[in-house]
Amino acid sequence: MSKLLYRIGKTAYDKPWAFIVSWVLIMGIVIAMLGINGMSVSSEMKIDGTESQKVLDKLEQELPEASGGQASVLFTAPEGERLDTPERIALITEAVNKVYEQEYVINPAELAAAAGATLSGQDGQGAAQGDAAAGAGAAQGTDAAAGAGAAQGADAAAGAAASAPAELPPYMPLMVNGMPVPGVLIATDGSIALFQFQFTVQQNSLPAGVTDSVVEAVTEPLEGTGITPLPSDSLKAVEVPIGVNEVYGLILAAIVLVMTLGSLVAAGLPIITALFGVGIGVGGAFAFSNFVTMTSFTPVLALMIGLAVGIDYALFIVNRQRRLIFDQGLTAREAAARAVGTAGSAVFFAGLTVIIALCGLLVIGISFLSMMAIVASITVFLSVLIALTLLPALLGLVGERICSKKSHEKNRSKTNSHGFSNGWIKGIVKFRWLVIIAVIAILGAAAIPAAKMELGIPSGASANLDTSARQSYDAISAGFGEGFNGPLLIVAEANSGTIAPEALGGIAQEIGKNENVSVVSPVGMNKDGNIAILSLIPKTGPTDTETKDLVTELRAADSAIAQNYDVTLGVTGFTAINIDMSSRLAEVFPTYIGVIVVLSLIILLLVFRSILVPIKATVGFLLSVLATFGITTAIFQWGWSSELFGVDTGGPLMSFIPILVTGILYGLAMDYQVFLVSSMRESYVHGHHGRESVIHGYNHASRVVVAAAVIMVAVFAGFVMTHDIMIKQIGFALALGILIDAFFVRMALVPAVMALFGDKAWWLPKWLDRLLPNLDVEGDKLIAELHAKEEEHPGKVVKVASKSH
Fold this sequence. Notes:
Structural class: alpha+beta
GO molecular function, one term: transmembrane transporter activity
Oligomer: single chain
Number of helices: 26
Number of domains: 3
Subcellular location: Cell membrane
Number of strands: 11
Distance between the termini: 23 Å
Pfam family, one: MMPL
Organism: Paenibacillus soyae
Protein name: MMPL family transporter
C-alpha cells in the first residue's frame, strides 16, 4: 500500500495540472448536472414494514382518498379581540373557500355531494370533531398522520355518530348561517380558529408551487384585517438547514490550521481539498435528488462529515511532509511523496473505518437512513481520494514554499523536549493507574443521564418559543387541547364480512371510554364495507408516555374491542409512527453495533497487528459514546444549561440519533486511534520499547491529532447554531463525542493503558501473524526500498536519514 501511494504522490507532484484539471472537470460535471436536474429534498421519514406504515399502505389501496397528506392553518386574533365577529367570520370563510378551490385540495362539500350526501345532514358538533381529529396533526408539519380528512363529509353519513365527550370541549365548529364551515373549529373564547384540510396525494408528491398557492390563497384575503394566519410546517417548502453559522466552524478550523502549520499557504490546502470533497459529494447528491427520495438531513450529514475528515486527512499528510522536510532535510518533492506513502496509508485505513461505520446503517433496512449513509460514505471516499491525489498535486504547485524561511528558523530553534506534550505524556505514564481510574469515573458519571434518555421526533412542543411551530403548538393546546397536536388515525378491518354502521358506532363508543381519549369520531368506510376509519384525539401530547401507552393498548390483538366486534385495529399518525421508528431502531441497534465493531476490529487488527490495541480502542469508544449520550440527554431533554445552545425547552432526542451518532463517532474516533497509535507502533518497530515507545510516539503525533480534533469539533459545533433542532442535536452530539473521545480517551486513557502493558500491547499469536497480510501502514517496506536504491545509486535519490527522528 505505501509503495503504491508513494508512486501516486510523486506522479501527482510532478504532473500537478493533470490531476487538478481532472478534479476541476469532475466538479464542473457535478455543477452542470445540478443545473440541469435541479435539487429536491423531502421531509418524509418513511419506515416500511412498521405497523403504522402498513396502515397507510392499506389505506392507499383500499381508500386512496383517505391517504393524502394533510395541512392546517391556525387563525389568531389580536390580543383581547375575537375572531367570531361577522366581519372576521366572513373573511375566514373566504380564505377557506379559496383553499378548497385549489387544485389537489379535497373539498369535503363536493365529496359529500358526489356520495349523495350533504353537509346539512351531519350532526354539526360530531362532524366538526371528526374533521378536527382527521387533521389536527398537520399543524405540526408532519405527514405521518395522513388519513381521514377526505372522507369527512361523505362517509361519515354512513350511519355512525361521533362519541360524545364527557364534558363540553373548549371549541365548537365555525358557523355561517347556521351551517358549519367544513374543516374549521373555533375556540370558545374566540381567540383562535383551526382549519384542517387534505390533499389528494402526499405532500412530497405534490407538483412544485402547489403549497405556495395554498398559502397565498389563505393569507391574501386576511392582509390588513388583524387576523394572523399561521400555516402548518407541511405547507412550507422543505429547506436544507444550512446557513452562515457553518462558516464560523470553517473560520475556526482555518485558525487552528495556521497555528498548527505556521503557514497560510500550508493551512489553505486542507481547506481547499475539503471543499472539493464536499462540493462533489454533496453537489452530486443534490444532482440526483430528483430521482431518489432524500431527506433534508442527508446533505447536511455529508457536509458535516466531509468537511471534518477532508480537513483532517489533508492536515495529516501536509504535517507529515513538513516534518520530513524539517527533521530529515528532504526536498519538498520527496517529502510529499513519502508523506502520501506513509501518512496517506493511515488516511486510507482511517477513511475505510469511517465508511464501514456509515455503511453499517444499510443493515437496518430503513430507506432514509440508508440514503444518508450512502451519500456520507461517498463523500468520505471522495475526501480520501482527493487527499491522496489532488493534495500532492497542489503541493507540487506550492513546491518548497510549503515551509517558509521563518518556519525553518523556528523549527531549528526548538528543543527536543516537545514542550507541553512531553510533560503531559510523562505525567500520564507516571500516574497511569490514576489516569485510567479518573477517566473511567468521569465518563461513567457523565453517562448516567443516558439511562433516562427518551427518543422521539422533536415536535412543536420542544421548538424554541420564537418559532411559528411552537407558537402554533401552544395556541392549539390552549384553545383545543394538547391532544390536537398529535391525533391518531384508527383503521378497523373486519376479520370476516363487513362492519355494520351500528358496529362502527359501538367501536367508537368503546374506544371513547379510554381515560386518555378526548374525542373519537367515525370518519368513513371503504366501498366494500370491511374497512372503517376513525379519528381519535388523545388528551395528552404527541410525545407523552400516556399517548404512547394508548397506541399500544389500541393495537393489542387480544383487546376487548377487537374480540367483541371481530375486527383488527390498526393505528397510525404522528405518535404511532414515532413509536414504530423508535422500536424498529431499538431492535436493529445491537445488530448494527455488532456489524461495525466486528469489521472495524478486523481492520484495526490488520493495521496494528495486535490483539490488545483494537479491543482497547473499542472499549474506550464505548465509554466516550455513553458519556456523549448522557450529556446530550441532560442538555436537550432535561434542559441543563440549554440556553447556552439556543434551546428554550427540553424534549426527546431524535429517535435515530443513537444509531447515527454511534456509527459516525466510531468511525471518526478510530481515525485518531489510527494516527496516534500507529505513531507509537512506528516508534516500537524502530527500536523504542516499553513506555519509551509510548512517549516517543505520542510526542510525534499528539500535536497534529489535537489540531485535527479541534478542527473536527469546530466544524460540528458550527451546526449547533442552526435553527433546526434535529441538526442542532446531531451537531452537538458529534462535536461533544469527538471532544470526549479525542481528549479523554485517545490523549489520556489510551497512552495510560499502553504504558501499563508496555511491549505486551503489541503481542500477536505467531499463527495469526503468519495469516495476516502486512499492510505496511508505517511505510517500513517503502523506507527500506528507498534506502536500497540510494545505496545502489548514490546521488540519484534524496538522502534518507534515520527513521528514528
